[in-house]
Amino acid sequence: MYDLGQNLTGRINVGLVGTGYAAKLRAEALLQDERANLVAVAGAEKARTETFAASYQAQAIDSWQQLVESTSIDLIIVSTINSEHSAIVRAALESGKHVVVEYPLTLDAIEATELIALASYKNLLLHVEHIELLGGLHQAIKQHISEVGHVFYVRYNTIKPQHPAPRKWTYNHESFGFPFMGALSRLHRFTDLFGKVLTVNCHQRFWQIEDDYFQGCFCVAQLSFESGLLGQVIYAKGETLWQNERKFEIHGEHGGIIFNEDTGQMVRRDGTVPIETINRKGLFTKDTSMVLDHLLTGAELYVTPEQSLYTMKVADAALRSAQTGLTMVVD
């Protein structure tokens, strides 16, 4: 069990970094759980942070540095831009705080390895959120995948046209990171379902008219798995795309599983059968509840930081492939 210090109220005191969409869902989850107490919030803009904190009966803090140094906080939740994750996580762990961070843990696999080792050394929780594993699509695939026989090809496309592209951090190279690192869940679905990857071949293209922000990106990767499976994943967004798509296909020797958005079907010789999925809502609440269970009772979490790190290594191989034009072996 972890040492939660002198928490005399029997509740876990939480500090939250971020005021965006994910931070909002975290704050709502904490407010609904009597085992947690959202103490303080740190954000990039003072006025926005004060408004956000007041909405959840929390204190607004000027900086995340002050937040992680607070002696009244047991757990730090990091829900801010990707490029800031590593510095905040490191500071929180060094200050003796348990940490929950939205994927990716960092934008660099070597640094992620160091942070996982630091958490282990200090006997602190480091949980990297991967709620895609908890969602209805992923759970339905796990439930039905044995029915299609030996799987030989999978494809996962997420294409999001935006006209005009928003001028925000998710369209900034430095803040978001390499697409398959910033959007790590696209690859993590594959590694969770299909195991080890041998090689990656990746190509990317960006459309950009200013230094700080791009207007469109298209990134495609082919993955060769140890099992012989071939996978393809596309991540694309922005002004140069024209048709929205979120499609997951699994092709086996005895059938296929096809998901368009959240609508799934099993396809076999004898016909097509719908696949039911649970609602996507409430996944951050479920993740938060599981973290509190883990801290207070030792209950097992659904994903380990090492599993997230492995997927980061696959993403790193994709990056090196995109940069060199060569097929890369995953370390």
TrEMBL record:
Domain Gfo/Idh/MocA-like oxidoreductase N-terminal positions: 12-130
Pfam families from the entry?
GFO_IDH_MocA, GFO_IDH_MocA_C
Using the record's annotation, list all stretches that form the Gfo/Idh/MocA-like oxidoreductase C-terminal domain.
Answer: 147-326
The superkingdom of the source organism is Bacteria
Q: What is an example of a GO molecular function annotated in this UniProt entry?
A: nucleotide binding
Can you tell me which family this protein belongs to?
A: Belongs to the Gfo/Idh/MocA family.
Q: What is the protein's name according to its record?
A: Biliverdin reductase
Organism of provenance: Dulcicalothrix desertica PCC 7102
Classification from the root reads: Bacteria, Bacillati, Cyanobacteriota, Cyanophyceae, Nostocales
